[in-house]
Amino acid sequence: METSRVLDGVKLRGRTQERVVARPRDLAEVYDAYSGALYRYLLAMLHVEHDAEDAMQELFCSLARVDLQRVEDLRAYLFQAARRQALMMLRARRRHDREAAAAQVSWVDPDACLPDDRALALDIDRALRSLPSEQREVIALHLCEGFSFREIAELCRIPQNTAASRYRLALARLRELLKEGDRDG
Predict the structure, then answer these.
(1) What pTM was estimated for this model as a whole?
(2) Could you tell me which CATH class the domain 107-185 is placed in?
(3) Rg of the chain over all Cα atoms, to the nearest angstrom
(4) What is the CATH number of domain 1-105?
């Protein structure tokens, strides 16, 4: 792979290293560079691993029919396409099924935490799962993937103030839930 085509180490998030493809030659290159971030985003929206995997497959099947050389902002295009795919899947599900599935997804791996932090990690995980999907989506994009509120607004097709408001509401709800957990414990 030519070094002029791929910029390595653009952003480090925890233990994952993402690559950003400047001008992809083929779909495999795009997959290698963006599949991890797209999968995390789809999982945050769909809450079920096999649904996220199905959405990824559908997404890349549809991308095979697109001339990605003509796409101006590849990252934004990919996340918009992933969002459209996730929304189609969500519409196909009933609301009750979607909320039941959300309770199964863990945001935190307690085994990766220090023993003293495991209880707090589990409390944070429960609090995140209790958020409405619109707030969880903004948390996932902003905190986990590093999107700005402007980028989130474009991706979700909402006003920038709405993206920021959902984020603030989510943080306030998380604080409230974690304080309740402190009082109960």
Answers:
(1) 0.55
(2) mainly alpha
(3) 18
(4) 1.10.1740.10
